[in-house]
Amino acid sequence: MNNHVDPITVSVIQARLDTITKEMGETMLRTSRGPIFHEARDFCTSVYDAECRLLAQTEYNPNLLGATRFAVRAIRDFYGDDVAEGDVFTINDPYHGNNHLNDHTVIRPVFFQGQLLFWAAARGHHADIGGAVPGHNPGATEIWQEGVRIPPVRLYRRGEMQRDLWNLILCNCRAPEITRGDLRSQVGATRVAERGLLALVQKYGAARFAAVRDEILNAAERRVRAALREIPSGTYHGQATLDHDGHNKEQPVTVRVKVTVGEDWIEYDYTGSDPQTAGFINSPYPNTYSATCISLFTVIDPDIPHNEGATRPIRVVAPEGTLLNPRFPGPVGICTVTTAEAMLEAGWKALAQAVPQLTSAGWTRWSAPVIMGIDHRTGHMFADILFLRKGGGGAICGYDGWGHIGTPICGGGLRDPDLEMHELENPFTLLEHEYRPESGGAGQWRGGLGVIYRWRMEAQAAVAVQFGDGHRTPPFGLMGGKDGVPNTARIYRAGGQVDEVDSKGVYHVFRGDVYEILSAGGGGWGDPHLRPAELVRADVRNGFISLAAARDDYGVVLDPATLAIDWEATRQRRGNHL
Amino acid sequence: MSFRVGIDVGGTFTDFLVVDAAGEPHIFKTLSTPRDPSEGVFDGFRQMAAALGLGLRDLLAGVSVIVHGTTVTTNALLTGNGVKTGLITTRGFRDVLEMRRGVRDQIYNNRCSPPAPLVPRHLRLPATERVNYAGQAEVALAEADVRAAVAQLAEAGVAAVAISFLHSFQNPGHERQAAALVRELLPAAYLSVSAEVLPEVRFYERTSTTVLNAYVGPILSGYLASLARRLADSGFGGTLLIMQSNGGVVTPEVSVGKAVNTLLSGPAAGPSAGQFFCQSLGLQDLMTIDMGGTSFDVCLVKGGRAITTREGEVAGYRAATPMIDIHTIGAGGGSIAWIDSGGLLRVGPQSAGSDPGPACYGLGGVHPTVTDADTVLGYLNPVYFLGGHMPLHPDRAEEALGGLARRLHLSVPAVAAGIYDIVNASMAYAMQVVSVRRGYDPREFALVVAGGAGGLHAAALAEELEIPLVVVPSQASVFCAAGMLLTDFQHDFVRTHKTTLDGADWSAVQALFAELEAEALATLAREGVAANRVALERSLDLSYTGQFHEVELPCSTDQLTGDGAAALAAGFHAAHDRLFGYSEPDARIQVVNLRLVARGRVDRPGVRPRQAGGGGAVAPKGTRPVYFKAAGGHVETPIYDAAAFAAHQTITGPAVVEAATTAIVVPPGFAFAADAHENFLLYRQGESLAQIVQRLTGGVAVQA
Q1: Do B700 and B449 touch, CB atoms closer than 8 A?
Q2: Is the preceding omega at residue B413 within 30 degrees of 0, hence cis?
Q3: Helix or strand or coil: residue B446?
Q4: How many CB pairs (< 8 A) connect A and B?
Q5: Do A484 and A474 touch, CB atoms closer than 8 A?
Q6: Is residue B94 within 8 angstroms of chain A, CB to CB?
Q7: Is the pLDDT score of B400 beyond 90?
């Protein structure tokens, strides 16, 4: 322990930094226009020191956790000394340090007595950033086809709004009202951070704060190293396959990882993964780094603060020109979800060989549309991502998977829109939103259930851009648990025709059409015959699994009328595992 | 009819405050009896009667009002012992309760389970029906579905039925139709209907609140019925009132229909108590804290009103009806200190509870706790803890802290001081959550302290947050029971009405408010509240067009006009800037909800004046070594008896002032004073108490 900083002040300041990022998040939740922020919370707020080291963050969407620091560094590197109090910057271009175009990152330098001491960043997912289609363009083969590229620029110069630049950004978007409101909300969040950070440094002084900061980072580093010592050293391999890249629809794409666990460090080496693809699943290094951090942080002690210190023991190798570190100008649109999921899965499968009891079975992959059109009730544009399609979480030793919770890259941080709000904000009539029976993989611990999500289009027309994966690849089971049921989507046309919806594609939806998404259930963990028969019976009674599944998958035979357990028949199937 | 009784049934103790005809308060405490809480209540009455030299019947015949805070519903929820409940809901949407909006609080923790739904899926039954987003009935209610559902629920033996249909907050027709059928077919069941419990947008929040109401409703109605019967049998002819989570009281009849509103029935009286004890000082802006053995509760009172929230959760279950914004953290005397894997000292949230309790209790506890640290630091008197009823063992405390000291390479007193600082930091953080994070500056509030351990930590908390004045009421140990006697009737009403501010049809808005007012006045009249005691407060939930969270802005009736709207707009822009760091003067503002709070004022007992002093200094009763950081360690410190203080007598730190149920630590640099009534005050030495109070009251100078 560092002797010159008292551990008490360290705890106090760490708590205060966390609060500041929570206050930023609260500001975005309560003031934003787009349901992607205020209902779904697809954003992340964070604060950095002058050297752009991450001090604290609130990540409702964990996938932003390790990536935002690269954007802050890009601003610092581009502007150098040309940074003043009252400046506010933004960036969205992955080839300038961002992760993908949709995540606008708004960054404010914070000065104390004329000296740059902090950076505050609010990053959030915008439904539309221009480009060929709303959301993510499955046809893109170059970054320019994905939307407007914003390198480091100033939204405010010394407190003065740069109206010309705002105009340039907003006239390249389909729903400028929503984009303007949400960017303002992000700017407000960084202002709230500035107030909090200044109060903190006024109280403790810059010099004392710097010493405490070092200890905050060192303490998190020690905790990660301690956790890594608990994992048997060695080299472990994992891989995960994506359905396709949106461009070559019959060509699966594979992420391969070699995980080396040292005494108190860990390396994820993606050498051997497929080369860069033509379509939009390429993952820029900041995103690859971030997804890798989640893959580890969801296995070790979840209580460790995820600051710069916590990531020091993690090394990520991704050769240039591969899927996980593409060359300019490869498209990258859905890397933050789809490719991140594949990295997460590959990493889990590798560590499952070392610490299976700490490792989750596969979760649902994301697959749902960004949707945009004119709401006939207001005459205004509506724009949303259909978060109600959340699917099942994977089971893990000791715990069933959660229903309606994933994608794993959000870990339950993203929130569903409320059903009534969903209808008030979008011209849809919801027809069904319930658990999807029998979708969770069987296991001693059962995979969580996906959902049945059906709605009818009431407006004249809208464009739905489906993005995601996992229509062909099911969530994997672990340690004898079975796979979950994969994603499916269809459009039942008003005229009677039924169109299959692919995980990556552009669909036009018209009044009376019914859009149906059946999200995947999570994978099971452990031998299903070891699941207590009473729990199997409860699952049948609640309609989570069928009588046939109880019998065939779990070896539990129930009386169809009373649901009483037929112990004799069950014993015949299970042997002694009752 | 001369006695007024406040009763707070807590987890360990049932607290009573009795105020007699002369305004004299009497404090009683009995052990709680969780199996039938009315046992503990009657134990208290018997104790009271004996102390006052009366028979039980004579005492109860002489009681005019009983205000009762109860934890029966809270305990039922915490222990999973609510009633078997069924839910009838719109077909296709029966899992909203269990899905919880797809949120997992610990996003990196794959090894945890969600809270079990209060209604399992096989008791969540669908009925075909549909009201659309605009409140129009599009698909008629299939009564056959309701009948089938009721039959199934009856067979399962449910004691309560919740009904929640989509968009019923705009059109409750189908819910009413279904409710009538349930009443007819299953008359014994407790019925909870969403449009009655919470007529507000957001299906999950409304359904969850309605189900909670059903789950604890029969528990509350059973308990209150038996209590009322027992009281009547024993000669009680006065009024029984029930404390609600929103900080107001209601009659038992009203309470039973809104059982969800009693989930914070006990602690919700804290703000009223704080206001009562501070009224003689003229203070309107208070932060009340209650530090017990395992938890720390904090609430804010601003301008004489407790801050409320509609985003509450109790035991992980979402209740969206207005409740006092009580922020609770797991920090108290029993909180255990430990070292995390990064080598940092941490305190809580694990607690040693009361059995075995802190190591210094000598009951077998070995974990180092906050109370052990307080003992090592000399803040607690080993022979005068709980008035001498429980001896403390400082050697056990030192032994328990020794392990931490060795691992941290610190001395035992240094570790104790560290524990003291860390638990204070957690509590200060909780205090910031209800102040700074809500946009309030803690320096503008007085800190009102309750609970046995509060006085040991209050000065340090005040220093951390730069709070200028600490108030420790002499009845701090029955703080909430006292608060109950001072609580007004209160009902909250809401209607969703979406319009732009500049395009509002103000006559329609006023008509809606008039409807709410009529409902409010009728409810209060049923409770026997005279019209001249009713106060109505209106407010609007406003946002910029396109936003989906609102800011609640109080409004007067004359602002609800085309001309008055400009003032509303200005007020909204200012509030938005204060809360969120920016405003958008060029953007349109929309109205989302109309809210009305109706209060019926009750008679309050006055505060007693403290005996005037004969001049001269207070003499300490002794000295002992006590640790103060400013002094660099333990220093020989004077110890005072709280009862020795006459009005306006003052001492300066370092000192410890001891009463039977609490002690107050006065660090160097602090002054301690007895006020003219029932409080003890702490403030920075060298400052003028009159000026501090004047600053806190916004210029109204009051003789402290």
Answers
A1: no
A2: no
A3: strand
A4: 222
A5: yes
A6: yes
A7: yes
Q: Residue A219 is nearest to which of B344, B425, B549, comparing CB atoms?
A: B344
CA nearest to B296, candidates B433, B396, B389? B433
pLDDT of residue B439: 63
What ipTM did this prediction achieve? 0.94
Q: Give the closest residue to A278 by CA, choosing from A307, A244, A236.
A: A244
Residue-level pLDDT at B68: 94
Confirm or reject contact between A389 and chain B (CB < 8 A): no
| H or E segment to which residue B181 belongs | helix B173-185
Contact map slice: A 441-500 vs B, CB within 8 A: 451, 454
Question: A523, A72, A57: which is closest to A294 by C-alpha?
Answer: A57
Q: What pLDDT is recorded for position A575? A: 84
Shortest Cα distance, chain A CAs vs residue B112, angstroms: 7
Query: Do the Cβ atoms of B582 and A12 come within 8 Å?
Result: no
Mind listing the pLDDT tens digit for each residue in B6-24? 998 876 678 888 888 887 7
Residues of A in contact with B205 (CB under 8 A): 418
Q: Output the pLDDT for position B487.
A: 85
Compute the half-sphere exposure of residue B384: CA atoms within 13 Å on the CB side of its CA.
19
Length of chain A: 578
Query: DSSP 3-state assignment of B382?
Result: coil
Rounded CA separation A268/A255 (Å): 12
B475–chain A nearest CA distance, Å:
32
Touching B: A residues 195-224, CB under 8 Å: 195, 218-223
Mutate to test the interface with B, among A156, A418, A423, A457 (most CBs of B within 10 A): A418
Alpha carbon separation from B568 to A539, B499, B577, B586 (Å, rounded): 54, 14, 14, 15
pLDDT tens for B28-67 read 878 777 778 888 899 999 999 998 899 999 999 999 889 9
pLDDT value for B699: 61
Q: What are phi and psi of B511, to 5 degrees?
A: -65, -40
Cβ(B236)–Cβ(B5) under 8 Å? no
Angle at B347 between CA B341 and CA B348, to 5 degrees: 100
Task: Name every chain B residue with its beta carbon within 8 A of the beta carbon of A415.
Answer: 101-103
**Interface test mutation site (partner A, options B327, B411, B548, max chain A beta carbons within 10 A):** B548
Neighbours of B63 (CB within 10 A): 22
Q: How far is B38 from chain A (nearest CA, A)?
A: 37
Residues A351 and A353: their CA atoms lie apart, in Å, by 5
Using a CB–CB cutoff of 8 Å, tell me whether B107 touches chain A.
Answer: yes
- Which tokens belong to B423? 């638990």
The runs of H, that is alpha helices, within A136-204 are: 163-170, 176-204
Ranges A84-93, A237-246, B111-120, B288-297: which has the least confidence = B288-297
Q: Based on the number of CB atoms within 10 Å of its own CB, is A278 exposed (0-12), middle (13-18) or buried (19 or more)?
A: middle
Return d(Cα B663, Cα B640) in angstroms, integer: 10
Q: Is the pLDDT of residue A2 over 60?
A: no
CA distances from B453 to A276, B14, B293, B380, B575 (A): 63, 18, 8, 10, 36
Which helix (H) or strand (E) segment is A291 a member of?
Answer: helix A285-297
pLDDT tens across B440-477, in order? Answer: 778 889 999 987 788 999 999 999 888 999 999 987 77
Tens of pLDDT along A361-385? 999 999 999 999 999 998 988 888 8
Report the pLDDT value the prediction gives residue A4, as an integer from 0 to 100: 61
pLDDT of res. B702: 46
